[in-house]
Amino acid sequence: MRILYLPGNTANHKEWIDKLAQDTNTVLDKDILHYSHWDTGEQVINFGTELDRLGKLIKDDEYIVVGKSAGCALGLMAYKKGIINVKNFIFLGFPYLWLENLEINPKELLGNIDKQILFIQKPYDPVIPFNDLKNRVENMSNSFTFLEYKREGEEDNNHNYGDTKYIGDIIIENIDKQSVC
C-alpha cells in the first residue's frame, strides 16, 4: 500500500503538499503529483493532462489518496478511469462549488464510489462550508464520513488547511484503521 498526495489547484500548494507528506509519519511509500500548469502560468488545472501524468506516476499497488481541493476531483477521476487502485480517500477542502463553476458535477464525481471517503472541511470554507457539504453528499454513500476541521489560531472561513502535523496524524489514524480491516 502507498499514499498518493494530490494538491490543490494553485502553485502555493507545492510547499504545503510536500510538508504534509513529510508530516505524515509512516513507513508507507509516498507519491506526490506537482501540477504542470504551475510552471506554465495557467490559472486552472488541466484534468486531462494531469490524469495522463498520474498514469505514468502510479505504481501497481493499492493507494490511500489524499486530495486537497482540485486534488480531490483528480483522485476521483483517476479512480473512475481505472488509473489507480484505491483503498480509500481522504479529502481536504472538497471543492464542491468550484467544481460546479467549472461545469463539473460533484455528485457525478462522487456517485457510485464504493470506497471510504473521509471529508475534512472547514466550517465556513468558501468552496463549500462543512454543513452544506455534509447535507449535500452524506446520503450518497454509507462509506462517506465527515470531520469538521477546526484548529486554534486558524481562521475557519478560508480554504487553507495549515496544520499539516494534525492532518498527518489523521492520515496515520486512517491507515491504522485500514490495517485492522
Describe the structure.
The longest helix is centred in the last third of the chain and has 17 residues. Helices cover 40% and strands 19% of the residues. The chain has a 6-stranded parallel sheet with strand order 2-1-3-4-5-6, with helices on both faces. It has 8 helices and 6 strands, in the order βαβααβαβααβαβα. It is of the alpha/beta class and 181 residues long. The relative contact order is 0.16. α1 crosses α8. The mean pLDDT is 94.
Strand count: 6
Helix/strand order: EHEHHEHEHHEHEH
Helix count from the secondary structure assignment: 8
N-to-C span: 14 Å
Fraction in helix: 40-55%
Low-confidence stretches: none
Structural Rg: 15 Å
Q: What structural class should be given to the helix and strand makeup? A: alpha/beta
Strand residue content? 15-25%
Read across the widest sheet, the strand sequence of neighbours is: 2-1-3-4-5-6
Task: Give the tags.
181 residues; globular; single chain; 8 helices; 6 strands; 40% helix; alpha/beta
